[in-house]
Design brief:
Layout: H1 5-13, H2 24-33, H3 37-40, H4 53-60, E1 65-68, H5 70-76, H6 83-86, E2 90-93, H7 108-113, E3 116-120, E4 126-130, H8 131-134, E5 140-143, E6 152-153, E7 157-159, E8 169-174, E9 179-184
Parallel strand pairs: 2-5, 5-7
Antiparallel strand pairs: 1-2, 3-4, 6-7, 8-9
C-alpha cells in the first residue's frame, strides 16, 4: 500500500535473515503479476510491472504463517523467570486466525483477511468481535491488518498494525521480551477510507 512497493519486495527478498508472511495485498499483487485480468486492470497494482521474475517467485513462496518454536526462546532467555514466554510457540500471520478452528486447519482467506470472529454475547446472540480477544492459545499470535483498531495487546495475540501507511505509527515487537517499539510515520501514504 505504501510507496516503492517493488523496491521494498526486492530489498526484503535479498535480506538473508528476514522472513515475511503473505497477506491480502501480496496475494492480489501476485495475481496481477501473473496476469489475472481483474487485478491487472486496477491502478493500485500497476507497480507490479516493476517486479523481477525473482521477486514474483519469492512472493509466490511466501508462507501464510511462520511458527517460532518456544525452544528458540529458551536458548535466548536462559535464566529468565518468565515461564509464559519460554513455554509458548509464536505464530506470525498477516491478519488473523479463527479461534474456533485448530491452527493446522485455518483457511488461507481467513489468515489474510480476518479482523472479526463471531462470539456469543450476554443476550445469547452472536456478534462480531475482534478475533484476537477470542484467541485462547496456547500459541501467541502476532498479526497486523487491522489499523482501524490499532495496537492490540491480548493475552494470546498481539496486533501490531498501528497505521503507518495512514500517517500514524510503525510498531514492532521484540521477542521473547514482548517489548513494543514504535516510531512515527514520516507521512501519510494512503488516505483512510471511511465506510
Amino acid at each position: 500500500k505504501g510507496p516503492s512497493s517493488a523496491q521494498v519486495i526486492e530489498y526484503v527478498r535479498n535480506q538473508p535473515r528476514w522472513f515475511a508472511v503473505r497477506g491480502n495485498h501480496d496475494d492480489r499483487a501476485l495475481a496481477a503479476a501473473l496476469g489475472d485480468p481483474a487485478c491487472c486492470s486496477k491502478p493500485k497494482y500497476q507497480w507490479v510491472k516493476a517486479l523481477s521474475e525473482e521477486d514474483v517467485g519469492w512472493m509466490s513462496e511466501l508462507p501464510y504463517t511462520i511458527t517460532i518454536p518456544r525452544r528458540m526462546f529458551n536458548a535466548h532467555v536462559s535464566g529468565s523467570n518468565d515461564s509464559e514466554i519460554q513455554n509458548q510457540d509464536v505464530v506470525i500471520v498477516h491478519a488473523g486466525l479463527d479461534p474456533s478452528i485448530p491452527l493446522e486447519q485455518q483457511e488461507t482467506q481467513t489468515m489474510i483477511t480476518l479482523r472479526n470472529a463471531i462470539a456469543a454475547d450476554a443476550d445469547g446472540g452472536n456478534k462480531p468481535k475482534a478475533w484476537a480477544k477470542l484467541w485462547r492459545g496456547p500459541e501467541l499470535v502476532i498479526f497486523g491488518h487491522d489499523a482501524k483498531r490499532g495496537l492490540q495487546q491480548e493475552e494470546y495475540a498481539i496486533g501490531l498494525d498501528s497505521g503507518c501507511v495512514y500517517g500514524k505509527k510503525l510498531t514492532g515487537l521484540i521477542l521473547p521480551e514482548r517489548e513494543l517499539v514504535s516510531v512515527d510515520a514520516v507521512r501519510e501514504h494512503c488516505p483512510i477510507h471511511k465506510k
